[in-house]
């Protein structure tokens, strides 16, 4: 029941993901960060098998760092997306990673871009994309309201509309969402959308 | 003697590994490199041998970073350096991937020294012909460190050190003039030490400064020229002060 979706605006990219960590019928936590900051100007939102998600995204992040140290310049978003797809493709017929990825990045020369990479290593460059059961609702909302040159405020309004749909129409809807943004100033956390807060752990007296 | 310097896996009767010692010779022929550790700043300065007019000097970087908080300079065979640096960079990321923490300076120095040692105890290979100066801040405690490794695979920590051409004279200078410094004073000390054996001027020296907040920063030629000018002025003033009292006596 995980949801990850993203869209590209005038000069920024947004990735939103639910923050539930679920095992069968148990909710481990409701504030799990599934959107990895790959480097200063890239976001990788991932959904799928929990262990694979953490392992694969960290592996990609360390390889992106290594490229930067070896070559003195960062990877472009397109290059990072193709590298990620390549790793998924190589592992596919042996030991597949069950991870779906939305990769958003900002390059100085080409501006913002968004890539849809699914667990069987399909790669699509898109303006908007979504994964999970929530995608039925998020994609429909985005198809209706999305425009190429949205401002940050308009885009966040659209993201909130998608979250509202998922919350109200999906049977076991994730309660909390995390939104991250990437633009010329870098990749960073934008906002949380919480309907349940984890109770603070009380320390023994 | 000639019989004991072919394969490095063979000791000579008086306990030498000749190939390793010859590798140290190669280091002694390499460009001079100086490292100085301050309280909040660590500086690496490397001699830039005259660049051919047509060569793009930006493609020849002598001070490189291994990770956000670790940098390396070396003296000796530059091609060997490329291989060692590449392995060290991979190890920095690999360690972060498995341990979720950045490497300590000591760890990566031990790793590089371990690599260098491996090649002194294998068949059919030769040692790496370079000594490295490794600087960095401990990711948890923030303490600055300076380490040196050599072709035999030994490593140790230093307050200030030099390697490469004329390293003995530079080390003598440092032993005489070292004191705990911080910030710009550390930079000046490193450049003064290097100027003992290198022609003065920004285009003959490459300098990089590492601080906890800003990581590694390569100094521009103009900046280096300015500091060199400062140093020369201080030297001239010291000379004048030495001469002044004697003229009063006449």
Task: Explain the overall architecture.
The complex is a heterodimer of chains A (205) and B (250). In chain A, strand 5 and strand 6 (42-48) form a beta hairpin. In chain A, strands 10-1-2-11-12 form a 5-stranded antiparallel beta sheet, covered by helices on one side. Chain A has 205 residues and is α+β, with helices and mostly antiparallel strands. Chain A is globular, with a radius of gyration of 17 Å. Chain A contains 4 helices and 12 strands, in the order ββββββααββββααββ. Chain A has helices spanning 50-71, 77-92, 134-145, 152-169; strands at 4-8, 12-18, 21-23, 26-29, 35-39, 42-48, 99-107, 111-117, 123-126, 128-131, 177-183, 186-193. Chain A has one domain (4-194): Glutamine Phosphoribosylpyrophosphate, subunit 1, domain 1, CATH 3.60.20. Chain B is globular and about 65 Å long. In chain B, 40% of the residues lie in helices and 22% in strands. The mean pLDDT of chain B is 90. Chain B contains 6 helices and 10 strands, in the order αββββααββββααββα. Chain B has 250 residues and is of the alpha+beta class. In chain B, strand 9 and strand 10 (215-218) form a beta hairpin. In chain B, the strands form 2 sheets. Chain B has a 5-stranded antiparallel beta sheet with strand order 8-1-2-9-10. A 5-stranded antiparallel beta sheet of chain B has the order 3-4-5-6-7. Chain B has helices at residues 18-29, 78-99, 105-118, 167-177, 184-195, 221-249; strands at residues 33-37, 41-47, 63-67, 70-76, 130-137, 144-149, 155-157, 160-163, 205-211, 215-218. Chain B has a single domain (31-51, 61-234), classed as Glutamine Phosphoribosylpyrophosphate, subunit 1, domain 1, CATH 3.60.20. The interface between A and B is small, with 9 and 12 residues.
């Amino acid at each position: 029941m995980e949801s990850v979706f993203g869209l590209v605006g005038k000069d920024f990219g947004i990735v939103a993901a639910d923050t539930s960590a679920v095992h069968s019928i148990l909710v481990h936590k409701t504030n799990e960060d599934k959107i990895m900051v790959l480097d200063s100007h890239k976001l990788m939102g991932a959904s799928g098998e929990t262990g694979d998600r953490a392992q694969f995204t960290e592996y990609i992040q360390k390889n992106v760092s290594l490229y930067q140290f070896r070559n003195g310049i960062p990877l472009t978003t397109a290059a990072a997306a193709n590298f990620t797809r390549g790793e998924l493709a190589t592992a596919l017929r042996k030991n597949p990673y069950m991870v779906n990825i939305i990769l958003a990045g900002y390059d100085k020369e080409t501006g913002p871009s968004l890539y849809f990479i699914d667990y069987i290593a399909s790669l699509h460059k898109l303006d908007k994309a979504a994964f999970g059961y929530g995608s039925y609702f998020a994609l429909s909302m985005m198809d209706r309201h999305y425009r190429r040159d949205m401002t940050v405020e308009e885009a966040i309004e659209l993201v909130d509309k998608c979250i509202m749909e998922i919350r109200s129409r999906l049977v076991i809807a994730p309660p909390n969402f995390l939104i991250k943004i990437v633009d010329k100033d870098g990749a960073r956390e934008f906002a949380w959308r919480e309907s349940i807060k984890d109770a603070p752990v009380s320390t023994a007296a | 003697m000639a019989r004991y310097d072919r394969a490095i896996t063979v000791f000579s009767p008086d306990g030498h590994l000749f190939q390793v010692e010859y590798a140290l010779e190669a280091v002694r022929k390499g460009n001079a490199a100086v490292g100085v550790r301050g309280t909040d700043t660590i500086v690496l300065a490397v001699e830039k041998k005259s660049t051919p007019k047509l060569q793009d000097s930006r493609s020849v970087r002598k001070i490189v970073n291994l990770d956000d908080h670790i940098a390396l300079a070396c003296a000796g065979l530059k091609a060997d350096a490329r291989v060692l640096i590449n392995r060290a960079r991979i190890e920095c990321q690999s360690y972060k991937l498995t341990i979720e923490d950045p490497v300590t300076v000591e760890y990566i120095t031990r790793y590089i020294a371990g690599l260098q040692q491996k090649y002194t105890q294998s068949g059919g290979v030769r040692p790496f012909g370079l000594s490295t100066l490794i600087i960095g801040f401990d990711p948890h405690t923030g303490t600055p460190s300076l380490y040196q490794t050599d072709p035999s695979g030994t490593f140790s920590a230093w307050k200030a050190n030099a390697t490469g051409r004329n390293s003995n004279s530079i080390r003598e200078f440092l032993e005489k003039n070292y004191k705990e410094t911080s910030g710009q004073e550390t930079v000046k000390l490193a450049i003064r030490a290097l100027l003992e054996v290198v022609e003065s001027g920004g285009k003959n020296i490459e300098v990089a400064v590492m601080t906890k907040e800003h990581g590694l920063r390569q100094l521009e030629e103009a900046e280096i020229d300015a500091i060199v000018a400062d140093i020369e002025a201080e030297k001239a003033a010291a000379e004048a002060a030495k001469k002044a009292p004697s003229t009063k006596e006449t």
